[in-house]
Amino acid sequence: MDRAKPIFAALFMSFSMLSADSLMAQESSPSVTENVAKVTFLNPGFAYEAKTGKSKTLYTQIFLNTSLRFDLEDDIYADQVTSTAYFDPALSTQYRFYYNYKKRNGAGKRTAKNSMNFFAPIYEGHLSKAPFPGTSFEEIDRRLLSTIGAVWGMQRNYAGRFSLDIYTGLGYTFGKESEVINGTLKSGTSGAPALIAQVNIGIWLGKK
Fold first, then answer.
1. How far apart are CA 200 and CA 186, in angstroms?
2. Which H or E run contains 52?
3. SS3 for 204?
4. Where are the domains of the chain?
5. 7-46 as b/e, with b when 16 or more CB fall inside 10 Å?
6. Taking the chain, what is the end-to-end CA distance rounded to the nearest angstrom?
7. Mean pLDDT lowest for which of 13-17, 121-125, 137-141?
8. Phi, psi of 191, deg, nearest 5
9. How far apart are CA 92 and CA 193, in angstroms?
10. pLDDT tens digit string along 46-79?
11. Which site among 74, 102, 123, 153 is 20 to 30 Å from 15 CA-CA?
């Protein structure tokens, strides 16, 4: 896993530079982004998106992350699948590059309140007791699980204030991992590739 860390870091930085270069042409056009605040109900929390450039924003969300873990347990009669739900305080920070303003605007579709598609490098942090991916030991106390990666997504903030925000991508998760070896609890830092996916539903705030 240690060898994978610099690879993912390099991919993360390369994606950021490539996204910036590919959108330089839009910088000569009028600004297409704006500041947007919203309350989310699916993944309940608060998000604020700050305009940082003509087609770029810094998106930050503080929310309660809901996740499900499924485990296969041996039974004397048959294997059983058990599930555990986790509700964890979380933070997501993204530097978004919106890229399809001209296409949506030309088709007469809404672009206000950053209602466009985007690419973004992302950091997500969760304070969780959930077992580290690939292990089965649940932590006694919450610890920070961090994920860095790159995502593609779409945001739609409709005139009626309904807000839909979807993104997915790949990343690398690292944090404390514990396991019992020969009756002794051992802890250390581990890392693993991770799928990033999120659906946020809520309402946007401010003037229409």
1. 37
2. none
3. strand
4. 4-123+148-204
5. ebeebbeebbeebeeebeebeeeeebbeebebebeebebe
6. 48
7. 13-17
8. -145, 155
9. 18
10. 999 999 999 999 999 999 998 877 666 666 565 6
11. 102
Pull the structure tokens for residue 117.
């598609």
Our measurement of the distance from residue 196's CA atom to the centroid of its chain's CA atoms, rounded to an integer in Å, reads 6
- Alpha carbons 44 and 65: distance in angstroms, whole number: 8
SS3 of 165-201 = EEEEEEEEEEEEEEEEECCEEEEEEEEEEEEEEEEEE
Please state, in angstroms and rounded to a whole number, the distance separating the CA atoms of residues 73 and 56: 47
Backbone angles phi, psi at 18, to 5 degrees: -65, -40
Contacts of 51 (CB under 8 A, 6+ apart): 31, 33, 34, 35, 57
Which residue type, as a one-letter code, is found at position 113?
K
Matching residue, tokens 């604020």:
48
User: What is the spatial distance between Cα 17 and Cα 100, in angstroms, rounded to a whole number?
Assistant: 18
* Model confidence, pTM: 0.80
